Amino acid sequence: MQVVLDATQIASGTKSMKSTSELEKSSADDRGRSGQSGFTLIEVVIAMVVFLVAVLGVFLTVSYAINYNAGNNARTKTLAVMQREVERLRSHRARVAWQRRRGGIKASR
Fold it and tell me: I need a labelling partner for 6 at 20 to 30 A (CA). Which of 21, 38, 57, 64 fits?
């Protein structure tokens, strides 16, 4: 165990000796708030910036997904209309061919 004299003890001339751990505890108490635990303002600001970047990334991802799905919705509706028209044209062509075979429609030349 290492024993050291405190600076105030040397100045006052007292001969009581303290161990290094007792001296560290007393000097931490003498410094006031520096011995307390907690976050500094810089740490809080950095944490807020990191959190902001993460939230911004999530927001942009959700925004992209919404826009992409809206585009898919428009494409789906367009495809449904096109399929309906193609089926209507096929149906008409098949009906005309059936009527020709039965002799109902004469081919014009």
Answer: 38
